[in-house]
């Protein structure tokens, strides 16, 4: 059963409303849902703004590396296609080797940046998930530890992180000063997640085909797929930047209103916003 007003959180009042929809008066009389004895939720907020800036910088670098990779892959495609066109009569092997080396170097750069970005992004993701625990624990369907672990579960990592992000998004939606709740369209989050999943699947598919390619025409065709995968990754990186900035800004606005429903008053500083430890 869900709240009769927002249809998001479990009801805690006699008239079927959740803590947030009931407002301060309802929060004063309705108890918080009990937490398991082995689990003590975080009771303070920490700003994700510094981590968000680092993630944005790294995602921008990924987009630049993808552009370099696209240029290198198109060069490889051009060299081999030119050889096919004249039956390799004027094929320049040194040029082909240089083109292949440039493509390989771009691939190494992409791998290093992806690893660095993944680490910082997951740290940021865990931070905003812990803040969401303070904002509204009732809309979190999974424990905070899954904000890290969900990314490493094969196949399920295509679904679970989005589920966690949805709970964080809902809890971070700005409320009015009287505790009223409002929803924020999750379009940018849905676009980011869809683009990331498509980019991941397309990249793995195209790379496997590229490794299996032996004939010149096969290499030309699979290189075209690599170009498409890198172009899609650029789109995913841009959408990820928009998602990170939007959610971080939402949490800042939410923190400025206090930590309702855990308390109904007090500025963000009282909730530990910006705490470094």
- Unreliable segments (pLDDT under 50, ≥5 consecutive)? 32-41, 261-272
Shape: elongated
Count of alpha and pi helical runs: 7
Query: Structural class of the secondary structure composition?
Result: mainly alpha
The quaternary structure here is: single chain
Radius of gyration: 24 Å
Query: Strand portion, in percent?
Result: under 5%
- The ordered H/E elements are HHHHHHH
Instruction: Please give the number of β-strands.
Output: 0
Mean pLDDT: 83
- Level of helix content? 55-70%
Major beta sheet summary: none
How widely separated are the two ends?
Answer: 38 Å
Describe, in short, the structure shown:
Among the domains are: 1-40, no CATH class; 50-58 and 118-256, no CATH class.
Molecular structure report:
This protein is an all-alpha fold and 277 residues long. Among the domains are: 1-40, no CATH class; 50-58 and 118-256, no CATH class. Helices cover 63% and strands 0% of the residues. It contains seven helices and no strands. The longest helix has 43 residues, at 93-135. It is elongated. The relative contact order is 0.15. Residues 92-249 form the DUF4328 domain. Keywords: Membrane, Transmembrane, Transmembrane helix. It holds the Pfam family DUF4328. This is DUF4328 domain-containing protein. InterPro entries: DUF4328.
């Amino acid at each position: 059963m869900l709240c009769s007003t927002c249809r998001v959180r479990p009801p805690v009042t006699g008239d079927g409303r959740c803590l947030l929809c009931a407002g301060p008066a309802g929060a004063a009389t309705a108890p918080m849902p009990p937490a398991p004895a082995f689990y003590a939720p975080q009771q303070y907020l920490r700003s994700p703004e510094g981590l968000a800036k680092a993630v944005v910088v790294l995602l921008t670098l990924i987009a630049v590396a993808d552009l370099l990779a696209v240029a290198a892959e198109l060069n490889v495609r051009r060299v081999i296609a030119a050889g096919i066109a004249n039956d390799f009569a004027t094929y320049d092997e040194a040029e082909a080797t240089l083109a292949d080396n440039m493509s390989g170097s771009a691939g190494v750069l992409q791998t290093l940046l992806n690893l660095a970005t993944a680490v910082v992004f997951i740290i940021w993701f865990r931070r905003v998930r812990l803040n969401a625990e303070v904002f509204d624990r009732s809309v979190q369907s999974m424990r905070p530890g899954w904000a890290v672990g969900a990314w490493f579960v094969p196949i399920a990592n295509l679904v679970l992180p989005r589920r966690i992000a949805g709970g964080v998004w809902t809890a971070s939606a700005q409320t009015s000063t009287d505790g009223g709740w409002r929803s924020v369209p999750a379009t940018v989050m849905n676009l980011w997640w869809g683009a990331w999943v498509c980019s991941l699947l397309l990249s793995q598919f195209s790379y496997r085909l590229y490794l299996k390619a032996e004939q010149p025409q096969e290499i030309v065709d699979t290189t075209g797929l690599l170009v498409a995968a890198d172009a899609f990754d650029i789109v995913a990186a841009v959408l990820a930047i928009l998602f990170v900035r939007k959610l971080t800004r939402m949490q800042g606005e939410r923190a400025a209103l206090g930590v309702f429903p855990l308390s109904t008053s007090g500025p963000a500083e009282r909730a530990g916003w910006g705490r470094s430890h």
